[in-house]
Fold Major facilitator superfamily transporter.
Amino acid sequence: MTEPARRWYHWFSPRDSPEERKLILKLDLLIVPYAFILYWVKYMDQTNINNAYVSGMADELGFHGNELVQFQTIFVVGNVVGLLPFIYLFPRVPMHILVPTLDLGWGLFTLLQYRAQSYGEIMAYRFMVSLFEASYFPGVHFVLGSWYRSDEIGRRGGTFYIGLTLGTLTASLLQAAATTYLDGVHGLRGWRWLFIINAIITLPLAFIGYFIWPGTPAKPNRLVMKKSELELARSRLEKTGSSVKSTPFSLNLLKRVFTNWRFYLLVLWDVFFFNTSSNSAAFLLWIKSLGRYSTAEVNKLNAISPGLGIFFVLFINFSADLWIGRPAAITLASAVNFTGLVILAVWNVPEAAKWFAFSTSYSAVAVSSVLYGWANVILKNNIEERALTLILMTAIATSTNAWIPLFVYPTVEAPRFPKGYVYSAVMVVCLVVTTQVVRVLLGTQGEKRQPKSQDSSVAEGTSTSVDGSYDRKTSSPRIEAV
C-alpha cells in the first residue's frame, strides 16, 4: 500500500482513522508531557551537582582536586548497577507502577544531599540518586516503542528529550536564584537550597504518575486505558510487525540475543554516541575561569547551551520522522557537534569561537531519541529482546562514562581538556560511520532480515523464516530518506 503524500508539519498519518487519531492524541497527552516533565526533573537532579560545585560547595567543603569528575563518575556507576535488574522487570512489572516508585526514591536522595558535610557523604547520595534514576531513560523508550509506530516515535522521543536540555537550563537558573535570594536563609548556603528545591519539585510528580502513566499494551494502566483503546493499539502495532505479547524470559532469549551480531552492533553504536559529548561542566568551568562574572551570572550564562539545545533536539527529531530520515538527522547533528569540538580542541581561537562551540554542544545529545527510536523499530518483533537489548545498550554505553572521563576530562585540566575534546571528536566520526553501517545492515524500519540463529522460538504473533529470523511483512509507511 502506498503512503499518501504527507507534509512535514502533519502530526498524524493520512492513513490514520478517526479512532486511531483519538487514540494517538490520548497517548500523546498521557505519555509525552509526563515523560518530559519527569525527565526535566531528573536532569535537574542529575546536573545540580555541577552548579552546586561552582556555587560554594567546593569552597565550603574544601574540594580542590578531581572531586567533581569523581561525583560524576559515581553517578555513572550507580546508573550501570541500577539498570541491570530491569532486563527482567521491564516486561513484567507494570510501568505505571515502576516509574513513579523509582521517582520517589531519587527524589528522597536528592533532598538528603542538602545536609552533606563531606566528600564521602556526597558520593553516597549521588550513587543512590543515580541508582533510582538509572532505568528512567530506557524505560520511557520502552514505553514509546510499545505504543507508537516507527513513523511516530521520533517526534515523541524528541519532545520527551527536551526535558534533558530544560533540566540543565533550569538547574542553572535555580542555582542563580538560590545564590541570590536564599544564600544564608536558615543558616544554609545557596547550593544547599538547590537540592531542597529540586526535591520539592520531584516528589509530588511520583504520585501523579500512578494515575496518568498508561503502562504498556501488555500491562496497561486500566484507570486511564479502555478495553477498546487497548484492542486498537494492539491491532495497529501488529500490522507493522510489532510484538505486543510477552513471552517467558529464558536461556533461549539470552542465546538468541548474544549470538546475534545485531546486538553487538547496536551496543557499539550506542557507546560511540555516549562518548561524543564534552564534559557536562566544561562550559560552567570555562565561564568561571574568565573571572569577570559573579556566581549568579556564571549560572545564568550556563543556560545558553541547554537553551539552544531545545531547538537542536526538536529540529533533529522532527526532521528524522518527517523530513530527512534518521541517518541524515544523526549526521547533521554530528556535523554541528564536530565543528564545536574541533574549535575547543584547537583552543587558541577568538573568544567568540569558544562561545559558539560551547553554546552548540547540545547538538551532541540531540540524536539520542533518534538513535533509541531507531533501535526500538529494529527490535520491534519481540518485547523481551527489546527490553534486554535497550537496557544492555544503555548500561554498557553508560559504563564507559564511569572511567573514560577520569582520563580525558580530569577536573584539574579544566576548562582546557586537551585530550577530552579530541577524543569526543573522534567518537563523533565513529558514530556517523556506524550509523551508515546500521542503515545498510539493519535498515531504517527494521525491515532487513537478521543473521542465522540456532533458536527458532519467537514471540507469539510473529512469524519466522527457516533461519530463525523475524520475517513478517510490514505495511507500515516507509517515509524515511536513506
In short: Confidence is low (pLDDT under 50) at residues 449-482. The longest helix spans residues 18-61. The chain has 19 helices and no strands.
